[in-house]
Structures are given as C-alpha cells and as structure tokens.
C-alpha cells in the first residue's frame, strides 16, 4: 500500500500515552494473545469547538465531547456523546498498513520487511497475532473463514484462518501486490506493476482482469464489478466486470485526470474517492461521468486526504498529515468537512461498521484507533 507520505512513517515507534480513561474489555483468547489493553483518549484534548455533528453543511466543525468521568474506568459508550471516547485499540505498531473489520474484530498489517498480521476485539481487548515473518504485508481483507493479505515484498497473496493457523499462499503475483478485496469465491488484487488480478480464494491460477495500469491501488467490489484507483499516470477511477473483459474489451474509465486518487469506496450507485493532489473528496456514478462532464466534488481544501468509507448518510475520510484526523461530510457534500477526531498524526487507512469508525495512525505512535460515529 502506498502510504502518504512514505518518508514520514517512523521506523521506531513509541507507545501511545493514555489521556482520559482506560479499559481492558474484550474476551480472553489463547496464549498467543498479547497483554495490551485498550486506551481511551478524550477528544476534548485534541480539538476545540462549540459545534456538534448536527452542523454538517456549514463551516468547519470539530466534535468536542466532554471528558469521561475519571471514576468510570470502562467509559461506557452509552454515556458519552458521539466522538467523546477515542479508543486506542493497539499501540506501538510498526508501520501499520492495511486495515479491515468484521462483526467482532479489527484486523491490520504491519508493513515492514519483517511484518505481521494482527487482530483486536472491537471496543478493545488483547491483541492476537495471526501471522509473523511476513514480507512487507500491505492490504488486508477478511471473509467468514480467513484473513487475506498482500505480501508486497514476496509477490504473494496469503491467507490464514481467522482463529489462527499456518499461513498459506493464495496466489503469486507478477509484481508486488498492494491492495486486495474478497468475495465468496475470489480474491482481487492490484500490483505495483500495473496488474489487476482475480484468483480463487482456495488458491490457483490468477486471471488477469487488466494490465498496463498506472500504479493501481485501492480496490473495491460490488456484486458484478471490480473498481480500482490508478494513483499515477492516468490518475483515473476504473472498473471491469468480475468475470473479465470480453476479447478486445477495455476497462471502463469512470473518471480520468483525478490528480492522485487514493482511497476508494462504493454505495449502490456511486463511486467515492479521495484525490490527494487536489485535496478533495469526489463522487461519480458507477457508470461513469457523462461526456463532457466530471465528477462531483463533495468537499475540497483537505490536506492529504487518504482512506475513505461511506454509509447511508455520510462520507468518512482520513487526513494523512502530521496533525491529521478523521473527517466527514454528508453524501450531498458540504462547503467544509466536520472534524470527527483531530490531532491524529498521519491518519491513513480507514474502515467503518454500523457504530464506529476505525483508522490507522502511521506516525510515531503507530496506532489502531476507534471512535463512535
């Protein structure tokens, strides 16, 4: 995965300090679990504002909840306003890279030369090691049975059972794999050399969906198609059918000239992405922009927008700067974003579920984070 900027990912990471209250919730797993507790940060120490999340379409706002009661060590979410409790699910992570979430756990990779794959219960608890000794693992995805990840340094996509077990190769790639996504039958992967591939989740020969792409990165799926962002060169958002192109067919260019598109997300009708070069969040129909038209700019003036996710009402995205954070706008866009969480270092990969937002801080804190929507 291309981290933004690469030069600012620290090689030596310090433990995140605890501000506010802390808890150690989560079930007790096997002996391979670490002893790390979740820490909670009071968002009032990170940013000041008198506005709430109700003001989505106005000036820039920051959600500022009061500090949890110091006597309440568990910091129950029901008694804290949205964003009031920022959880550090894992700290002192060495260059965290990929991020995924299922109904129980948050998963991530540490993307150094001797990297690993890990998980932690949603809401906090001990960290479990799924795999170690991996070669620069980047993107990660999960299904009901396995965790999948891209080993950029060994040109391979790997998998392991959710509850632990020996990693096995799914497919070897012609160049370093970056991002991946899975459905019930296949894993889809983009590579540094410009390939977009599909391979059976149980292992086997890869089908080339597209070649000659310009640094294809983030990849997402719907029921019928594969979508990815070409970060350089054509700077485009592209899709192909999952089944592959007919002979002589070409990928659909949904939008071109997008100035370093990075994060990518879908809803039923649209594709959403962050554009690093233009500092904006943008959207276009899955069928592509009309001739002579262009994508809709949901918000601009964002410094280094990175990971992105979408739910039924909002678009969430990370700002990968030294004082970055997690921001949001309504689906219709806004003149300025709402800051859900500020002062999060190099916030990069981002994921959501029905209740929470999760992100990686790739600064010297090297943390996996959670906050209520």
Question: Can you walk me through this structure?
Answer:
With 373 residues, this protein is mostly beta strands. It has a single domain, classed as 6 Propeller (Neuraminidase). Helix content is 0%, strand content 45%. It has no helices and 31 strands. The protein has strands at residues 22-23, 38-42, 61-62, 85-90, 96-101, 105-110, 115-121, 128-134, 137-142, 146-151, 156-161, 168-172, 177-182, 186-191, 196-200, 207-210, 216-221, 225-230, 236-241, 252-255, 261-266, 270-275, 280-285, 296-299, 305-310, 314-319, 325-330, 338-341, 347-352, 356-361, 367-372. Strands 1-2-4-31-30-29 form a six-stranded antiparallel beta sheet, with no helix packed on it. Strands 3-28-27-26-25 form a five-stranded mixed beta sheet, with no helix packed on it. The radius of gyration is 20 Å and the shape is globular. It starts with 21 loop residues before the first strand and ends with a strand. Mean pLDDT is 82; it is low at 1-83.
Structure summarized in a few sentences:
The protein is an all-beta fold. The protein is built from no helices and 31 strands.
Give the low-pLDDT segments.
1-83
Quote the CATH topology. Answer: Neuraminidase
| Strand fraction | over 45%
Quickly give the CATH architecture.
Answer: 6 Propeller
**What is the residue-averaged pLDDT?**
82
CATH class membership: Mainly Beta
Q: Which assembly state applies to the chains in this document?
A: single chain
Rg to the nearest angstrom? 20 Å
Query: Domains counted in the coordinates: how many?
Result: 1
Main β-sheet: number of strands, strand sense, barrel status?
Answer: 6 strands, antiparallel
**What structural class is derived from the secondary structure elements?**
mainly beta
Separation of termini?
26 Å
Q: Please identify which CATH superfamily we are dealing with.
A: TolB, C-terminal domain
**What is the overall silhouette?**
globular
């Amino acid at each position: 995965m291309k981290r933004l900027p690469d030069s600012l990912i620290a090689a030596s990471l310090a433990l995140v300090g605890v501000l506010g209250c802390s808890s150690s919730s989560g079930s007790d797993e096997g002996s391979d679990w670490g002893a790390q507790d979740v820490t909670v940060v009071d968002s009032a120490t990170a940013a000041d504002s008198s506005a709430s999340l109700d003001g989505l379409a106005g000036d820039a706002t920051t959600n500022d909840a009061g500090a949890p009661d110091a006597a309440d060590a568990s910091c129950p979410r029901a008694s804290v306003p949205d964003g009031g409790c920022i959880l550090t699910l894992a700290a002192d992570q060495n260059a965290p890279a990929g991020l995924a979430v299922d109904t129980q756990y948050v998963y991530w990779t540490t993307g150094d030369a001797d990297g690993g794959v890990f998980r932690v219960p949603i809401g906090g608890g001990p960290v479990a090691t799924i795999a170690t000794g991996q070669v620069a693992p980047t993107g990660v995805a999960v299904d009901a049975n396995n965790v999948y990840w891209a080993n950029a340094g060994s040109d391979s996509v790997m998998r392991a059972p959710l509850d632990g077990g020996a990693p096995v190769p799914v497919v070897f790639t012609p160049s370093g794999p970056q991002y991946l996504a899975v459905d019930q039958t296949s894993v889809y992967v983009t590579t540094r050399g410009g390939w977009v591939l599909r391979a059976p989740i149980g292992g086997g020969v890869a089908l080339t969906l597209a070649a000659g792409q310009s640094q294809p990165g983030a990849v997402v799926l719907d029921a019928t198609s594969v979508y990815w962002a070409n970060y350089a060169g054509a700077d485009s958002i592209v899709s192909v059918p999952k089944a592959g192109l007919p002979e002589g067919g070409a990928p659909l260019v949904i939008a071109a000239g997008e100035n370093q598109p990075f994060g990518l997300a879908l809803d039923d009708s649209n594709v959403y992405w962050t554009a690093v070069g233009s500092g904006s969040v943008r959207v276009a129909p899955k069928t592509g922009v009309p001739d002579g038209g262009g994508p809709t700019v949901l918000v601009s003036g964002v410094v280094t927008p990175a990971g992105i996710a979408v739910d039924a009402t909002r678009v969430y995205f990370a700002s990968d700067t030294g004082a970055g954070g997690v921001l949001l706008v309504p689906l219709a866009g806004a003149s300025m974003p709402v800051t859900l969480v500020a002062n999060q270092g190099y916030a990069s990969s981002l994921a959501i579920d029905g209740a929470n937002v999760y992100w990686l801080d790739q600064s010297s804190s090297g943390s996996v984070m959670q906050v209520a929507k």
